[in-house]
From TrEMBL:
Domain Plant heme peroxidase family profile: 40-332
Function recorded in the entry: Removal of H(2)O(2), oxidation of toxic reductants, biosynthesis and degradation of lignin, suberization, auxin catabolism, response to environmental stresses such as wounding, pathogen attack and oxidative stress.
The protein's name in its UniProt record: Peroxidase
Species in which this protein is naturally found: Papaver somniferum (Opium poppy)
Regions crossing the membrane: 12-31
Site entry: Transition state stabilizer: R77
Length: 332
């Protein structure tokens, strides 16, 4: 009888050990699969939770862009300034960021409310699912495509932050008089090549700059002396106090609502508006690339697409690192 009891006890011990091992392996499996999901953005992130998100964003944005074509430029710049500070996390949409404490580098930032409007539409179909940072990326992506630019696929799954940091914004956003060396250092830190860095600056194919930000191009010269014809034109355009009152603007290129390679054509002919636009066409590190993009729009679109993906994926919050905000302009 005793050997039978011993054998049974051994069998039970083996079964219990197997169950313990299976449960541990199972836990590890869950942990590793959830940490993989948490650590990565994905093209299919909302495939099951909100498959309509991309079409809702496009449908909501189309009439806004049709009634105000300047919104494309505003949304693209909004995205850049959001991504540049703490990674794309919608911190720039927080009301606390619009206060007088906000970084002066965010001068003339517009269209934050557009993201809130789209968020309401998305939430009416998929409540509490899609982050404001993902909506901003999708809106800027659509703004580029609807203005004639490349139709890009973007990674999704970013989470929103609960904070914004004005000091960091002041330190990280480029000043209006940024030169080529600093620009390359900003974008190569995000893993961009020199070609991609020049391409992301092609965003200046859209929109305008205020006179106050281009005064350096002409104010250091005595009237008329040593100015190129383009600088004289800028001086006239920004005359009569427009540069002081912040009211005057000049187009970043001659087709300000069209996403095309006109920006490179203009800059390569000495008509770059901001210092960085102008300097890129003469600096030996960037001038050949400016020339190449001026000749070939497809090359520009290809490099821009790669750069956009890197700009929008670097240092983002995923999984439990952030939240899905209920309202884009306030923390939950
Ligand atoms: C070193 C890099 C950069 C510098 C120094 C810079 C500087 C500026 C400045 C000073 C303005 C004019 C703002 C105003 O006066 O209203 C401007 C406008 C603009 N920037 Fe940039 N920028 C840089 C990179 C970028 C990037 C990477 C993007 C997009 C991904 C971008 C998108 C835009 C757009 C679309 C406008 C026009 C905004 C509008 O019309 O509302 N910029 N930029």
């Amino acid at each position: 009888m005793e050997p039978v009891i011993l054998a049974c006890t051994r069998i039970w011990l083996i079964i219990i050990s197997c169950l313990v091992i299976i449960s541990i392996v199972g836990d590890v499996g869950v942990m590793s699969s959830s940490s993989t999901v948490a650590g990565l953005l994905s093209y299919q992130y909302y495939e099951t939770s909100c498959p309509q998100v991309e079409s809702i964003v496009t449908d909501k944005l189309t009439p806004i862009l049709l009634s105000d074509p300047a919104s494309s430029a505003a949304l693209l710049r909004l995205l850049f300034h959001d991504c540049q500070v703490q990674g794309c996390d919608a911190s720039l949409l927080l009301d606390s960021d619009t206060s007088e404490m906000s970084s002066s580098k965010n001068f003339a930032i517009r269209n934050r409310e557009t993201i809130g409007i789209i968020k309401t539409a998305v939430d009416s179909v998929c409540p509490g699912t899609v982050s404001c940072s993902d909506i901003l990326v999708l809106a800027a992506r659509d703004a580029v495509a609807m203005s004639g630019g490349p139709k890009m696929k973007v990674l999704l799954g970013r989470k929103d932050s609960n904070t914004s940091n004005h000091t960091l914004a002041d330190a990280s956003l480029p000043a209006a008089n940024t030169g080529v060396g600093e620009m390359l250092s900003i974008f190569t830190k995000r893993g961009m090549t020199v070609e991609e860095s020049v391409a992301i600056l092609g965003s200046h194919t859209l929109g305008v700059s205020h006179c106050v930000n281009i005064m350096d191009r002409f104010s250091r010269q005595i009237i008329g002396a040593n100015r190129t014809p383009f600088e004289t034109l800028l001086a006239l355009r920004c005359a009569f106090g427009a540069s002081i009152s912040n009211s005057g603007t000049v187009g970043n290129d001659v087709t300000i609502t069209k996403f095309d390679n006109q920006y490179y054509k203009d800059t390569s002919r000495g008509r770059g508006l901001l210092k960085i636009d102008s300097d890129m066409s003469t600096d030996p590190r960037t001038a050949p690339i400016v020339e190449r993009f001026a000749q070939n729009q497809n090359e520009f679109f290809k490099e821009f697409t790669a750069a956009f993906l890197k700009l929008t994926s670097a240092n983002v919050l995923t999984g439990h690192q952030g939240v899905v905000r209920t309202k884009c302009n306030a923390v939950n």
